[in-house]
Write a sequence for this structure.
């Protein structure tokens, strides 16, 4: 699970300009992999503090992670 834009840029620099919401959706739909490990992308906790409306999306992301585990 990558938390936020900085983590995405560190692992996938080619995705740096793609909106985080689109990446969140793509990781659940198309399965993005890093060295044969599936990667999920969600918001950084500080983003959730700044914008509480994103908490539902982050909660959905972690619920999806739970189903994979």
């Amino acid at each position: 699970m990558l938390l936020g834009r900085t983590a995405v840029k560190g692992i996938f620099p080619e995705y740096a300009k793609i909106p985080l919401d689109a990446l969140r959706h793509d990781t659940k739909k198309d399965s993005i992999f890093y060295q044969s490990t599936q990667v999920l992308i969600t918001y950084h906790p500080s983003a959730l503090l700044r914008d509480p409306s994103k908490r539902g999306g982050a909660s959905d992301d972690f619920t999806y992670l739970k189903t994979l585990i």
User: Anything to note?
Assistant: Helices lie at 5-11, 20-29, 45-50, 55-68. The mean pLDDT is 93. Residues 55-68 form the longest helix (14 residues).
